[in-house]
Fold:
Amino acid sequence: MTRDTIPAEELLKKTRTAGQYYGFTPLEVFTTKARGSARKHLAYPETLSNLALDPVAETVAGFLRQLQSAAVTPTPKQPLFIWHTNIAPGRPAQKKAIVQFHALGTDRAIAEAVLIRALLALVRDLFHEEPIIRINSMGDKETRARYARELGTFFKKRANTLPEECIVCAKRDALEAAELAIAREYAEDLPSPTEHLSDASRKRFEDLLEYLEMTETPYELARDLLSRGNVWSDTCFEFLVDGRRVAWGSRYNDLARHFFPKAPFSATGAVLRVASEGAPATKPAQPRFRFSFVHIGDEAKRLSIRLAEEFRHAHVSLAQDIGVESLTEQLNLAERRGSPYLLIMGRKEALEGSAILRNRQTQEETVLPLLGLAERLKAFA
Structure:
């Protein structure tokens, strides 16, 4: 039976752990740095009033406002992978807890891949069940416009066989009519958005599916999973536990531009909602990681995603930044952590099934096989 309510302490602890091993930093790290500055609390951009935001988009907009208020702007050279929750240590537990994961500043498919894996780890831990991950792609603006026209033609041709409410709705919003047809189980012949993807959107979607397959991440293609075009774009996905949606995610580049018009960046996010209860969560001690894992190249990135679970289950004191592709930026982040050891994997090591362990104080290096790596690292702890 699916868990309906999760204690706040457990939710916060498990979210922090999933974030650690997949390279997501808590938003509070950035907002704490901004406290005491002269920056004023920023209101929502006026341009948002022209958008019809669904509940998930409203949650993401709130996150973006906090990011903007903290004067944090991701860039392709310095992408940010952030998690956030409305569960705050020392405060009463929220009845409706929200957990968010965001990948900002990169348009590579690895952003979605890492986010999905982090969310998968968390959902497994929270619900003690294997979730179903359903994925589709709505494409970019070009794709959505083409798909909307195809839907309009579809509803016109089937005006005599589909429910009248679908036909009436299609005259106003073809995508809304498509969602209505799906809900009424009249979507068997509904056109699929993936059949109309632009070249760029198709490449991004194929890259994501390759990442998921190479990392043995379970998923289902869901041609009936749709999103509205004024906020969401390209890949959309949902997590189902016992038939109930517990999380939803997608790219939201257009929404991010309302908050960062001078420095637009790619953005992907997911929101998990769950009922919570219990005593206020306690504030954890400042983490100190024994190892920082840095990796270069797609082969190493794919292996690092798979190794994250091994490290997590073995409770290895390790942190990594899987979605950050720049070696220099990864080393900068490792330097801030102050980890005494670096675990390094490039393309050569990935193909050979090994990694290099470097003692940062002595610069001594040891080559370790990936098989049983987590247990070997414990010998250096």
